[in-house]
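Provenance and format

Records in this collection were gathered into a single text stream. Each protein contributes a sequence line and a C-alpha cell line. The two records reproduced below are adjacent in the stream.
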Amino acid sequence: MFKKILIANRGEIACRVIKTARKMGIQTVAIYSDADRNALHVKMADEAVHIGPPPANQSYIVIDKVLDAIRQTGAEAVHPGYGFLSENKLFAEALAKEGVAFIGPPAGAIESMGDKITSKKIAQEANVSTVPGYMGLIEDADEAVKISNEIGYPVMIKASAGGGGKGMRIAWSDDEAREGFQSSKNEAANSFGDDRIFIEKFVTQPRHIEIQVLADSHGNCIYLGERECSIQRRNQKVVEEAPSPFLDEATRKAMGEQSCALAKAVGYASAGTVEFIVDGERNFYFLEMNTRLQVEHPVTELITGVDLVEQMIRVAYGEKLAMTQDDVTLTGWAIENRLYAEDPYRGFLPSIGRLTRYRPPVEVAAGPLETNGKWHGDAASGATAVRNDTGVYEGGEISMYYDPMIAKLCTWGPDRPAAIEAMRNALDGFEVEGIGHNLPFVAAVMDHEIFIKGDMTTAFIEEQYPEGFEGVTLSDADLTRISAAAAAMYRVAEIRRTRISGTMDNHERLVGTEWVVSAQGSQQAVSIAADAEGSTVTFADGTSHRVASDWTPGDSIAELEIDGAPMVVKIDKITSGFRMRFRGADIKVTVRTPRQAELADLMPEKLPPDTSKMLLCPMPGLVVKIDVAVGDTVQEGQALCTVEAMKMENILRAEKTTTVTKINAGPGDSLAVDDVIMEFE
C-alpha cells in the first residue's frame, strides 16, 4: 500500500481524505494557498506545502505547483478530491509521467466522461437515452440564441468542463439565452480555465437521481445504489438522501446496470457517479458522469458501509474490488444537508467572515460505516447516527476565494422518518455564528410537507420559496412548546439573579409564578409551578405542559423535554427573554411580569431606515461591471451591475422603474455587505 499521498485540494474534502488515509496508516501531505495558511486540512495533515496566492488559478489548479509539492515531499499518489484538478486529464497525465499514482480514473476515462459534450455523444452511441440538445461548440451569443430556438425554450446553458453548479444558466427567452451564455462562459473560464459551452433542453419538473459506481482496473464494476439530489438551488445541490424515496427496485437495477455498462465502455476504474434526470413515470435520462468523488458521497457510505475514499485508494494501488454486486446491501436511510456560508434572508447570497462560534452536534456512530465493506449496525434497534464532514473550525475564516461550504451534516436512521427526525435535532443543535448561513433554511426543508412525503423535484426551492426564504413561522403547537420552555427557563434565570452577592441590604427579590410570554406576535399569560424535577407551565386556557431540563443560564444550547418529547433549542439572552432558534424559526421570546407586559405594550416600535432608493451590495464581493450611468432611466428587472463572489457572478436588477442619480462604485471595487452601489430618484 502507498506510504504517503498528497491531497490536491482544500477544505472539507481534504480533511475527509486525510481521515481515511490516517485510518489506513498512510501519511498525508496537504497543499495550501496564502488564504489557507491556517486551514484545518493543513493542521490535520502530516506535512503541508505552500503553493501560491489565494486565487485558485494561481495555486490549487496550477499543475506545475502541485507537481513541485509532490517532488518536495516524495508523495507516491495524489487524491484530487472534487473540483479543482479532479477531472483534469492533463493533471492525470502529468502524474503518470512523474510515476505518481492518480487516485481517480484513467486519463482516457476523464477525457471521455469528464467532458459533458463528449460524454453525451458516447452515451448516444451506446443507445443510452439522453436529453435533447446541441453537443457542438457554440461560438457566440447569437449562435446560442439560434440553437436555443431550434431546441425550444426553456434550455439549459452549461459549461462543458463545469461542475458544482458553476457555469450553468436556465434561459426562457432570447434575452436570457444571450445573457446566460456570456455569464456561463465567464464563470467557466474563471472556475475551470475552459469556457466551452453547450445547450440542452431543460426538462421541467424532473428529479435528479444519481448512481454511485465503483470499478477497478481488472474489469470489475459495481453500483452502490442511488442518491436523490433533487433539492437544488441555482443548480447547486443542497439536500441529498440515499436511497431515493421515488425509485422502485426495478428502476434502481436498470439505472445501476446501465451506469456500470457506461463505465466499462470507457475503461473506468475508481469511484464515479452517473447522473440522471427522472420523470414522473420513472423514465430516466443520462445527464453526465462525474469522474471523481461526489460531495454527497457520505450518504452512500452510511447506507452501504463502504468507505469510498478507501476503495479509491485501493483501486489506485492496483487492488481488485473486494466485493461483488451481490455483496452490496442498502441498509436504513441517510440524509445530508450542506451547510453553506450564504445568507438565506438575502436571497442566499454568499457570506464571508470569521466563525466566531462553530459548534457542530456530537457525532454519533450507530455502526453503518465499517472498514471492511460490511454494515454491522442493527437496523431494528431504532438507533440513529450523526456525521459531520467539515473543513473549518471556530475562529477560522470563510474566504471569498473558494466554495462557500462550511460542512456536510449527515444523519442515518433505520428508516426515512427516523433519519429526518435525527437531522432535525442535529440542525437544532448546530451552532454557527459570525457569518450568514443556511441552517435555518435546511431546517425548514426538513419540516416541509413536500419533503416529508418525498414528492420533491429540482424545482422545489423555486416553487416553494418564490420570494426567497423569509424565515419560519412556528405552528401553534410548536409555539406553545417554545413559550412553555422560555417561561420555565426564564424562571430559572430569575432565581439565579436573586442569589447574586452584593445586593442591597433589607431588599429581597421575589420570583413570582405569574408571567406573560410574548412570541411571534402573540401574548400568553402563564403560571409556573416548579419542583425538583422541573416545571409545570399552565396557560390561560387551562392547558399545561411539563418542562424538564438541566439548562443553566449562559448555556447556548438548551436540551429539554416538553411533555416527555425532546426539544433542542439554540439560546441567546436578550432583555427580558431569549432569542430562540428552533426548526428554522428565529424568534425573540420575552417573559415579563403582568405589569411589565402592560408597560411594554405602550412602547413605540422602532422602524428600520428607508433604503428603497438605494442599491445595496447584498454580499461581500467584487464589482465586475456597471450596466447603467447617472441620468439613465431603468426599467423593472433591468440589469444594473454584476458582482462576483465565491466564483459566482450575481446580476443585480432594478426592482422598479426609476432614474439613476448617483453611482458610488465601479468595476474592480471590493464591497462589503450593504455598501451603497448606486442611488435612485
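Adjacent record:
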Amino acid sequence: MDSYLHLKAEFVRELAAGLGGAAPDALAGRAGLLEATVRDLLAGDGELMSWEVVSACLAAAAVDGDAAGRVRERWSAAEQAMWDERGDGPRAAFERDPRGRPARIVELFQPRVPWRRLTARHPVTFEPWAEPVFDAARSLPDPASAGDLREFYELLALLRAWAGSPRQTEIERRSWGALPDATVSAMLQKDRWRTPNDRERRRIGYFTAACGLPEQETARWTACYDRLRRLPPPDDLARARAEAAEAAERLADSRTENTALRERLATIRAEAAGLRERLEAGTGAPPVPRRPYARRAAAALGGAVLFASGALFGGAVPGGPPERTCFDGTLRLIGSTAFEHMARTLAAGYEERCPGAAVEVEAIGSNEGVRALARPGADAAATIAMHDGHLAPGSVEVGVHGFQGLAVSLVSFAVVANKDTGVTGLTAAQLRSVYAEDAGPVSWRGLGGADLPVRLIGRTEGSGTRTIFEERVLAGPEPRLSSRDCLTRGEFHRDARLIRCERSSQSQVLDLVGSVPGAIGYSELREAADARRHPNLRVLALDGRRPDASADPARYPFVAPEVFYTRSLPANGSPASAFLTFLATASARPLLESLGAPLCIAPTAPLAAPCGPA
C-alpha cells in the first residue's frame, strides 16, 4: 500500500497540473483565501488540507469537471492513507482504555483533521470525508468586512454555506463534540452582542475549522472576533426605537380589534336576551334554559376576546375571532422536546377532525422554537412555538416581537439517576448541594449511596426544561460545563469540582444517565418513567414526594405550564388562529383530556394560578 506522504505528493502534482500554473496571489484573491494558504497547499506543506479549500482553488482557476475529478481521486486516496496511518494511535489508546476517550491523543489529533469523524467508541472506526455540493462561483467571506458582531455572525453563516452547508449535527461530528448542534444553532441565530467571551472565541475556532479552514485562516477569524468584541453597538438605540414603534403600532391594532370583539359579544348577548323574552311572551311558558350550543358559542367568542385582550392569568393569549376552527394547509408546532408526545397527540386528533389540515411537530428545544418564530421571514401565521413555561414579560420576544402565549397544560418533570447510584430520593437541599458550583458532595457515598463519582448530565443552552429546572428546583444556575464525554474532565476544566456535560435533547440525556455510572439528570416525567426504554433509570423523589401526572406544584416543585406562542395575533382563518381557537372550544376538551395532564385552557374559565408565570 502506498504511504500517505507518497500519495500526498501525487495529489499535489495533480493539483498543480490542474491549476495550470496559476499564480498563488491571483488564486487567493479570487477564492477569498490567504495567499499563505494557497502557497502551503501548492507546496504540500503541513497536513493535508480539506476538500473545501482544494475545491475553492479549483473553482477560482475555472478547472473543468474531468480535471477536478482526477484531483479529487488523488486527494481522497491521500486522505484515506493519512487516516489509516494516523489512526493507529487513537485506536491503540481506546484498546488500552475502552471505557473512556483517549483525551490527550484526541486533542492532539483533532485540530489537524477536523473533517474526520469518530463513529464508534470501541473498537475505533472512522468515516471518510463526504463531498458536499458546492457552488462553483463561491468565495470565502472576509471576516475583516464585518463592522460589528452581528455582521460577524452573519459572515459565519455565509462561511457555513461556503463549506457546503453541513448540518449542525455534522458540524458537531467534525468538531469531535466540541460544538453540540444546539450550540451551533445558537451561534448562527441568537443575538450574541451581549455574550462576547473567551469561550465563544474557542467556539469560533472550532466552527471555522469544522468548515474546513486551516490554522492560518482560523486565526484570521478569531482575530477579527477579538477586535469586534470590544466595539460598542452603534445602532442599538435606533434599532430599539424602531422596534418599539412597531410594537406600539401592533398594540394599537390589537386594542382596536379587542374593542370590536367586545361589541360583537354584547350584540350577541342582547339578541339572545331579546329572543328569550319573545319566546316567553308568545308561549306563556316558563323561562327556557339556554341550550348548550348557545353557551358554547358565547364561550368561544368570549375566549377569543380573552386571546386578544390578554385578560387571562399569566399574560397575553393569541387568537382572534373564531370564524373557523379548521384550516386547509400546514401548521408547524416547533420547540419543546418535553411536550413532543402531547403535541403529536393534539396534531393527530386535530388532523382527524380537520381532514384538510396537516400539523407538523418539530421538537428542537423551547428556545430554538422561539428563535425560529422570531426569525425574519418566518411564516408567523402558520407557526406556533412550544415553550416550557412563560417567557419573561420584559423579553425581546414579548416586548418587541409581540409574542403572545396560550398555556395549554401543566407538565411534570423528573430528576433521574442511574440505578447504580443507590439513591431513591433527595431533599431539595441535597439536590442543590449536588449542583453547587464550588462545594458539595463529589461521591454518592456522601448522600447514602454507592461509592461512585457524581456526574451531572444537563441540557444545552436553549432548553426550556433546563430553565424550569434552574428556576423552580435549583433556584440558581447549573455549574459550568466541564466534560464532552460525560466520563472525564476536559482539557480546560481540570479544576472543575464535578464532571458535567450537556446534550441537546431529553432522549440523549436519558440515554446517557442510564449508561454512565453515577449519572444524574432531568427530563419530562412521561419519558423518564418509561422503564422499557430506560431500564437503568430511577425517578427520584424530592423531599419525599414522587412526581406524577397530577402535576400539582403545591406538593412537587418540578412542574411548569406548556405555553403555545404566536408572533402577535394571527389573522383569522390562518392555521395558527384556527388551531388555537379550536383548543379554546368545548369540543376540544376530550382531546385535551386524553393527554392525561391537568389542563390550563378551558372554554369558560381563566387560567388557574399554577398555569401562570412562576
